[in-house]
Amino acid sequence: MAIAVAMKILDGLHDNQGRRVYFAPTPSAQFTEAQTGWNATSNQWGSSILSLGGVFVEVEINMLNGSNIPNLNGVTYDTLKDWIYEGMQRFQGVLETTWPDITPYKQGGGKVLMFHGESDWGIPTASSVRYWESVRQIMNPGMSYNESAAAQNEFFRLFLVPGATHCASNSAEPNGPFPQTNLAVMIDWVEHGILPETLNGTIRQGPAKGQKQQICAWPLRPVWSGNTSNPECLFDQQSVDYWNYDLDAFNVPIY
């Protein structure tokens, strides 16, 4: 049963017709949000509803004065899809942060330095890849993939951090790097024109603690060889395809 549950989580959210609703966590992500909770009243293990998501449903979707949904009784995969769809419609101009045409920001000299842990348990890594790719496609019509990626990387760089979890390094993968100098990197980029070809990372725990590593910029992927601490950043189509997939449960573009 436990294996079946894990496989279902890693498959990601689909509706009752088998169409994909949302991105899946990576196999290396911890199942933090799938943990059960102990009910001291009934003396039984049961579902543990994370209030970060539950309060959104209770207050913003159901329009009730509460701090979490009381239970998941009657909630199906289609219910989850309906909550997502209603949230997108109701709060498109207030809470959505996925607008893909940021041309005015680019023309104003703005830069975007975005990073996401590849083992994030809370926000699937593929969601950041989806946004970067959406901006690339919308802002660079008519270009080839390589041409549009190069144009995108002039002002918007995405770094997938190997082994990192949700906004932090990962005790389960202790030898993975974690960026520590992003503000300095951004200052150098904006004020001195120093393009961050890679992102500085530091190993924060484990036997290699304190070692510096470089993190590759998307769509390049890290390849380690020999005993070197830094990877070679290469383009690999199969790896790029792994992070890009369609959310076909919706009839509108999802950015």
Describe the 3D structure.
By secondary structure, the chain is an alpha+beta fold. The protein has a domain at 103-243. It is built from eight helices and nine strands. The protein has helices spanning 2-11, 51-61, 77-90, 103-107, 125-139, 145-153, 182-192, 237-243; strands at 36-39, 44-47, 112-117, 156-161, 177-178, 198-203, 212-216, 220-223, 232-235. The protein has a three-stranded antiparallel beta sheet with strand order 5-6-7, with no helix packed on it. Helix 5 (125-139) crosses helix 6. The model has no long low-confidence stretch (mean pLDDT 92).
What is the topology?
Blueprint: H1 2-11, E1 36-39, E2 44-47, H2 51-61, H3 77-90, H4 103-107, E3 112-117, H5 125-139, H6 145-153, E4 156-161, E5 177-178, H7 182-192, E6 198-203, E7 212-216, E8 220-223, E9 232-235, H8 237-243
Parallel strand pairs: 3-4
Antiparallel strand pairs: 1-2, 5-6, 6-7, 8-9
Helix pairs in contact: 5-6
For the largest beta-sheet, the strand count, sense and barrel status come to: 3 strands, antiparallel
Note the gap between the termini: 34 Å
In what range is the share of β-strand residues?
15-25%
Approximate helicity band: 25-40%
Radius of gyration: 20 Å
The number of strands is: 9
**Strand arrangement, largest sheet?**
5-6-7
Shape: globular
Look at the structure and give the mean pLDDT.
92
**How many H/I helices?**
8
